[in-house]
Each structure stands twice: as C-alpha cells, then as structure tokens.
Amino acid sequence: MVDTKKGNLVLIHKTVLKPDERPDTLPACTKAVAYECWIKGFLLNSQATVGDEVRIETFIGREISGTLVSVHPAYDHSFGKPQKELLSIGRELRKK
Length: 96
Fold this sequence. Notes:
By secondary structure, the protein is mostly beta strands. The protein has a single domain (about 5-95), classed as SH3 type barrels (Roll). It contains two helices and six strands; from the N terminus they run ββαββββα. It has a four-stranded antiparallel barrel. β5 (about 55) and β6 form a beta hairpin.
C-alpha cells in the first residue's frame, strides 16, 4: 500500500542522538532519553508508506532522511485556554 508519492508534504521522525551519545554534562533524567526531531518537508522518494525510511527536502532546501510518520501533516498546536485575567484587557484599555 502506498500512502504518498514524490512531492507530497510529509512529516518524518529522526533520532539525532541516542542516550549513550549525549553529553555527560546533562542532567541524568535528560541524558537517559534520546534526542529526537520531527521535520516537515517534501518527499523525494517516488513513493512511500508510513514507517518507511525516506528522504525529504525541507522548506529551506535541506535534504534529510528519517522515518515517515504522516502525510499532509496538520498543525495541531494552540495557545492554550483563554486566561480569565486577560479577557477584559482590550475593553479596559479602550475605556481610557
């Protein structure tokens, strides 16, 4: 089954440093886990399935390899819940 083809926007995962490769100067709890990254870019392989090792070209033109995580990834971050104390600031300032 092919999930995507060349040129599609994808998200890859890459382990940059394994725990034993991380500096000894880090706190033990930090050093105990791998240093990982997730990168978006355009697929360079002719086709791929989630889980495949692939190459991508990033938005700034770098070529990077990693494990295909998702196809056409969406942004899913937010600024969190509205803070009650900040909701009235705009109205308060306009009254002055």
